[in-house]
Structure formats: C-alpha cells, structure tokens
Inverse folding.
C-alpha cells in the first residue's frame, strides 16, 4: 500500500516537472507549428546553470532565476536567429533543432564536464515525510503544489486573458488574428520565449526529482516532452497536463512494480495514441 | 443500357447535408452534363463517385458491379476515370512520366520493380500519341509544374483519358481557359474519347454544356431538381429561376 | 523556357557517364593506394552509403519522413551478431538472410503502424518505434548485452574466409550490386508510382494505384537494404552497440540524404561520404568537439544545401562538357 502511495506521489511530482517542460513545446507546436527538438536542451541549460549558480551562491532562488533566464535567452536566440527563417518548413525545423542538440550537448560537456550533477534543494524542504517504509521529501510535495499552482495560472492565462485568446485564435485562424489588429508575430515570439522560461524552470526545479542531470539529459528529456504532447494533445495547457500526469504516474508505477517495462511506457502510449486518436487525448479531432 | 447507376446517395458532414436522395444513371457512351449553381455539391458528387468520399447512404453501380464500398483504385481498374477542377498533376515529374503513370495505373505490370518504365514500348508509344493529340509532344521532358495553365488543363484531361475508361468523370474541364482554348479542349474531348465512353461532366461553361451534352442534370442544394435534354432544360421554369432569378416574363 | 529535344550524341553520353567509371576505379584501387585506416573509413562509407540510399527510397522517393531506419539497420545487425555468436555460424549466406528477414519484419511493422499517417506524424511514429527498438537493445541485457553491445564478430565466410582487404572488396561488390538494383527500382513502374504517390496521392489513387499498400511495400523494400547495410557494417565493425540504433543514427542517415540530394539516390551515397569524411578529418583535429561541427553541418545543410550537392555537381559537369539541356 505504501508502495502505491509513494509511487503515485512520485509520479505526480515527475508528471509536474514534465508538464512544465512540455507546455512550452506544446503551445509553440500548436500555435506556430514549429517543431523544436532543442526544447529539451533548454531544460538542460536551465538545470546546469541553476545548479551551478545555486551551489556557488548557496541560494536556491538565485539558482532558479539564473537557470530560467539562461534558458529564456537561449530560446530567444534559437527562435530569432534560426527558426524564424523556417516558417512552415517542418522538416527543416526538425533538422536544424537536431543540429542544436549536438552543439548544445557538446558545449555543456566542454563547459561543465562529464560528471552528473545532483539538483539543488532548499534546506527547508530537505525534510521528509514517512509513508510506510518510504520517505517522501517535502521538496517533491512542494513540486506538486507549485506545479499545480502554475498550471492553474497558465490555464487562466490561456482562457481568461487577451493574450491567451490571441494565442488560441492564432492556432485556428492566424489571418483573422492579424486582421483584428493583434501583432500575432510578437505574440508568437513571446509564447516561444515563455515556453523556454518554463522549460528552464522545469530544469532547475525538476533536477532533484529526476535524480540529477547529466550530459544526456537534454537529449533524453525531449523524447518525453514529445510523448507528453502527443499523448495529451498539442496546443493546450490541459493537454500538456493530462499527457504529463499520465506518463508520469504510469512510468512511476511501472518503476515500482515492473521496472523492466518502465522505459517503454511512454513510447507505447505514444504509438497507441498515434494509431487511435492522433490528435491526443485532449486534442481536437480534425 | 446504364453503365453507371446512382441510387439514393446522401452525403454530409458535421451538421451539413450536402447531397440527399441522389438518383440518376448514365448510359453507355452517353454524354451527360451536371450543372447547378456554386455550392450545389457538384464536385462532391464526383468525389463520391470516384471513391474519395464515402456516402452516408445509397448505392453506386458501375458496369454491374456494386462499387459503393470500393476504394478509388479499385474503381479505376473497373473502368472509372476522373479529372479535377484544379489541375491535379504530378508537378515535379515530366509530362511524359505523368502520362506513363496514368497508363500504368490500370495495368497489371504496375507492380514491376526492375524493368525500366521506358522499356514498355507500347505504353511509351501510346503516351506519345496522346501527347501529340494535345500538342504537347515537344514538351514531354518538361516538368508538369512548368506548363502554362492551358497546357496543364490539356494534360489534366489526357491523364483521365489515358486509361481508356468506360466512364469518364470530368470536373470543370475548361476552368480558367480562354474561349479558344475551351473550344480546342472540347474538340480534343470529342475526338480523343471512344464513342462508347460515358462522360459525366461538371461545368459552368454553358457553351460547352449545350454543345457536348446529350442529357443534362441540374443539381440544386444537393438534389437533382431537373433532368432532360438541353432543349428541355432550357425551357424548364425551375432551372431558369435558379440561374436567372424569378423574372416577370419568359 | 521550352526544352528542346536536342539529340545527345552517344559520344557525349559516354563523356557524361565517364565519372562513374572513375569512381568505380577509385573504389577498386583504394586498398592499393591508401592506408588501412582510410580503407576502414571507405568501408564504413560503403555501408552507410547503402543505408542512406535505402533511406532515400523511403524518404526522397516515397516521401515518408522516416526517423527509424537506424532501428531497422540495427535489428538486422543485432540479429546477425546474435546468430554468429550463439549459433557459431560463420557463413555469410546463412547469417545475412536471417538478419534481412528480421529487417523486413521490423520494416513491415513500422510501415503498417504508420501507414495512414504522413509527414510529421509518420516521423513521430517511426521515431517512437525506433526508440522502442533502442530501448530493447539497451534493456534486454541477456541477449544484447545492453549498452556494451555485442562484440567479437569475425569476418564471415563466403566460400572462403574473408580478411580485412577481401572483406572490403566483398562489401564493394555487394554495395555496387545493391546500388544497381535500387537504380532499376527507381526507374521501374513501381518506383515511378511511389514518386507519383508522393507528388499527388489523391491523383495516384484515382488512377488505380493502391497508395496505402504501395507505401508499405516501398518502405519494406527500403528496409531490406537498410538491413543489409547493417549486416555489412556489423562484420566490418566487429560488433554492434545501441548507439547505432537510436534516433541520433537515424537523424544522421537523413542528413546524409539531404546533404547529398533528396530523391537522387546517388546523392545519398555522396552525402554519406561527405559526412563520414568530415567526421574523420575533423575528429583528427578536435576529437571531443566533433559534435559541435556535426550540429553546425546539419544547420548549414538546411540553410545552404537544401537541394543537395549531387544535383549541383551534375549541373556543373553538364555545363563543363556542354551536355544538352541544363535544368534551371
């Protein structure tokens, strides 16, 4: 019983990290039709920067801020420098961002070295709550809470604000949005950068949940983010949430009960969804 | 002797009913025009007949076979061929390749994986004949996308004719052509198709309709509201109302 | 604008195709004139050249955005390696067909699952399936030895034992043979139909082509050659490891096709040569920073070589010898 509870909690915290990572990717894909394989790199940039600064200064908050900013700047460079020239060319976007994966991974290896880094945790949250034979750190519970709060904020942003409406409308009919006088291009750039900031945040905050980061994290994590988008549905906060929690919890349960299967979970889910309902659980059926 | 029979076909999507209770037939060798105002569903009819859309109800029979559930490629092998309103060519392939593809589509050797397509001499000769008939032989190595609009429409027609179909569906064959080009195309249609090819064509060009068609079907909001010879249709009151609006005098 | 049909003299034609002879002579002479590491490199180019050509069939000709071909390559390689190691089979003619059958099965599964998708979704499905295969390679330690991979695979017997130099010639003969087969395939009615389906699937279907079935068949044909490439590679390399199976390897194969020229077949081979040669020489200078250059090559290829090197080379050659029409 305690295994179940702890696995589910673990799964939720992992799912929240995935949600924060994948939301940016999902919105950008749905809004701009841009396939950014380098999105996972933003997670890694945020994590490494945040951990390094956090350890150097002893401040968790400072680490988070630096990680987020680093990711945001990197996202801006990728979008403005490269992706803006590849509008509507999906294959080209895939290949260019693929190239970035190689470059950024190797740069990190060069700058930070090959050894894995464990995430930073504020001392307050290092304590744990005991459930049966297991300890669950307050940090993980905090991640769930913070994730849920951010999710609520993002949902409100999507549904109740003008910019959210512009984004939703931009997914259906960009011309109308332009015609209404809204500068959709700026909205798109803002959405892209915001997604990058979220990914960076997910990186710093999520590193302890993932058990640390290493050189392959950026490449590994993009697969999961894509799986989240496919399973949950592209283009909405709720889609990213559903996909992330589903993958997070099921993977966590598998790790507890059938560890050899855990690694396959997201791919199998992806293939099932792609065959039965390609637009994803929350996606619109075209 | 009907070669194509359509019984009670209805089609719609979302909340929209596009075709309802459509029933008509085309006899062997008959030239039938399908006319009607924009949005009446004419292209949808052709899409349902060629198998690109599934009807919600009804039955389609071709040369005695029930083809209602048959996919497009199956219908082609039974002798159905179709052209498109917006030229639907293979843009980055040469004109000659376009025609060769049209010829091989209904032939058994289309699964051949080793012998070059150019080695099928009979097909190459037939292709060159067809291209000569539309005056495009000199452009046989040109990419299809580099042709002018008129040339593309001619190629479009010939691709549909190539397979020697029993039933030919044409969607606005003269769309976008000058009146000279249109008459030229009508002439090609007349001479290139065998006498026993049944043709169902959608057209806005009433000149084309009244010169080529033996029978006319008038489609209005998904229903056939009139059917008859060109003279009968010209005199039909409801047809005139659709096209000309209610007038005080005839 | 009008392309005249000037008759090209057979003499001119011979000159046009002369470089082919030169290339063949070059490959034949490699072990005589170049050092062993270069011979190794060229052998690798042959293997990956065949893989790239197979990817071009699926991607360039049929228009299927495959990102899982490395998995097919890998399945054949692993099957062959396992058969050699566990059943101690030394004959190429027994181990290789088993590997190719495995490749065919995997290709058929990939194609059947992805059949009704296209473009981005096809890519994602093949990528997910490819990663699934990669995960199996890493996880199924009892059979695949996980991350370590399977090693100690000796050169095969083809009637007699092969050694490093003779294996090179064996690979050369097989790859040239396969290239010719693929070339015939692209000029056949079936090959044309694949291009037609890519160019305009709706029209192809109404002309009588069963597009869904043909895409699957085309993909499986492509997979057969990808599998053969994997088998040739595992003997050359002495073994196989998961890194040859994953998304990175699939992406690399696709980039080779694009750099060389999508849909030109020979371009794919050229692309593999370019990428592997660049990798070799740049790694000599900065072995640990090579990935940065590789990434930069990907990006540069997209922005500057979108149509590929091969068509440009052909055009330049045509201009140089004054060969009839030159495509714009």
């Amino acid at each position: 019983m305690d295994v179940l509870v702890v696995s589910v909690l673990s799964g939720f915290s992992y799912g929240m990290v995935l949600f924060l990572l994948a939301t940016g990717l999902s919105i950008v894909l749905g809004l701009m039709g841009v396939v950014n394989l380098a999105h996972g790199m933003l997670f890694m940039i945020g994590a490494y920067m945040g951990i390094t600064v956090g350890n150097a200064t002893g401040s968790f908050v400072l680490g988070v801020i630096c990680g987020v900013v680093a990711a945001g700047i990197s996202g801006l460079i990728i979008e403005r420098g490269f992706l803006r020239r590849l509008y509507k060319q999906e294959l080209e976007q895939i290949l260019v961002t693929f190239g970035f994966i190689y470059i950024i991974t190797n740069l990190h290896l060069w700058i930070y070295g090959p050894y894995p880094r464990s995430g930073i945790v504020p001392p307050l949250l290092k304590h744990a709550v005991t459930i049966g034979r297991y300890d669950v750190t307050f940090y993980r519970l905090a991640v769930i809470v913070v994730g849920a709060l951010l999710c609520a904020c993002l949902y409100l942003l999507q549904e109740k604000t003008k910019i959210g409406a512009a984004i939703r409308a931009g997914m259906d009919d960009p011309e109308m949005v332009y015609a209404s006088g809204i500068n959709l291009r700026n909205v798109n750039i803002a959405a892209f950068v915001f997604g990058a900031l979220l990914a960076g945040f997910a990186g710093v905050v999520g590193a302890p949940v993932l058990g640390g980061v290493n050189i392959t994290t950026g490449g590994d994590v993009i697969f999961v983010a894509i799986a989240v988008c496919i399973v949950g549905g592209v283009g909405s906060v709720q889609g990213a949430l559903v996909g992330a929690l589903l993958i997070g919890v099921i993977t966590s349960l598998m790790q507890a009960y059938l560890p050899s299967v855990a690694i396959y979970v997201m791919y199998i889910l992806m293939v099932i969804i792609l065959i039965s309902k390609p637009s994803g659980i929350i996606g619109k059926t075209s | 002797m009907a070669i194509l029979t359509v019984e009670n076909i209805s089609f719609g999507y979302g909340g929209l009913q596009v075709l309802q209770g459509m029933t008509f037939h085309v006899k062997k060798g008959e030239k039938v025009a399908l006319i009607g105002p924009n949005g009446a569903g004419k292209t949808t009819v052709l899409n349902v007949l060629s198998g690109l859309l599934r009807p919600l109800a009804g039955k389609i029979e071709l040369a005695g076979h029930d083809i209602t559930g048959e996919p497009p490629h199956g219908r082609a092998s039974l002798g159905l061929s179709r052209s498109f309103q917006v030229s639907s060519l293979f843009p980055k392939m040469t004109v000659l390749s376009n025609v060769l593809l049209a010829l091989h589509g209904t032939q058994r050797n289309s699964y051949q994986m080793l012998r070059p397509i150019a080695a099928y001499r009979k097909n190459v000769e037939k292709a060159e004949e067809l291209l000569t008939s539309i005056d495009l032989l000199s452009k046989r190595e040109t990419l299809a996308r580099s042709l002018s609009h008129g040339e593309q429409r001619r190629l479009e027609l010939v691709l549909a004719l190539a397979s020697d179909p029993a039933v030919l569906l044409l969607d606005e064959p003269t769309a976008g052509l000058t009146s000279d080009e249109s008459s030229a195309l009508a002439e090609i249609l007349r001479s290139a198709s065998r006498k026993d090819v049944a043709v169902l064509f959608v057209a806005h060009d009433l000149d084309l309709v009244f010169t080529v068609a033996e029978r006319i079907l008038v489609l209005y909001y998904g229903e056939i509201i009139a059917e008859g010879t060109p003279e009968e249709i010209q005199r039909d009151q409801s047809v005139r109302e659709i096209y000309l609006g209610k007038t005080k005098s005839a | 604008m009008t392309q005249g049909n000037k008759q090209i003299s057979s003499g001119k034609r011979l000159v046009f195709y002369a470089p082919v002879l030169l290339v063949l002579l070059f490959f034949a002479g490699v072990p005589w004139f170049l050092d062993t590491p270069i011979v190794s490199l060229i052998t690798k180019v042959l293997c990956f050249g065949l893989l790239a050509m197979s990817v071009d069939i699926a991607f360039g000709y049929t228009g299927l955005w495959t990102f899982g071909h490395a998995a097919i390559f890998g399945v054949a390689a692993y099957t062959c390696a396992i058969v050699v190691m566990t059943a101690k089979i030394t004959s190429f003619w027994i181990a290789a067909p088993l590997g190719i059958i495995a490749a065919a099965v995997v290709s058929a599964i990939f194609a059947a699952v992805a059949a009704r998708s296209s473009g981005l979704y096809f890519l994602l499905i093949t990528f997910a399936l490819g990663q699934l295969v990669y995960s199996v390679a890493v996880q199924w330690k009892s059979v695949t030895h996980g991350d370590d991979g399977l090693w100690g695979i000796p050169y095969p017997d083809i009637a007699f034992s092969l050694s490093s130099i003779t294996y090179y010639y064996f690979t050369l003969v097989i790859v040239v043979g396969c290239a010719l087969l693929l070339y015939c395939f692209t000029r056949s009615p079936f090959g044309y139909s694949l291009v037609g389906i890519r160019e305009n699937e709706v029209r192809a279907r109404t002309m009588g082509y069963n597009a869904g079935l043909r895409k699957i068949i085309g993909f499986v044909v492509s997979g057969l050659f990808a599998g053969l490439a994997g088998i040739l590679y595992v003997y050359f390399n002495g073994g196989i490891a998961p890194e040859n199976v994953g998304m990175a390897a699939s992406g690399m194969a696709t980039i080779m096709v694009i750099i060389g020229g999508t849909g030109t077949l020979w371009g794919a081979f050229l692309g593999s040569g370019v990428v592997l040669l660049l990798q070799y020489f740049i790694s000599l200078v900065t072995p640990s920073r090579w990935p940065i250059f590789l990434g930069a090559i990907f990006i540069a290829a997209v922005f500057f070589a979108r149509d590929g090197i091969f068509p440009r080379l052909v055009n330049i050659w045509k201009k140089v010898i004054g060969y009839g029409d030159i495509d714009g």
Remarks:
- The interface with chain C takes residues 50-52, 71-73, 75-77, 81-82, 84, 88-93, 97, 100-102, 104-107, 109-118, 120, 138-142, 146, 159, 163 of chain B (CB under 8 Å).
- The domain at 2-244 of chain B is CATH 3.40.50.300 (Rossmann fold).
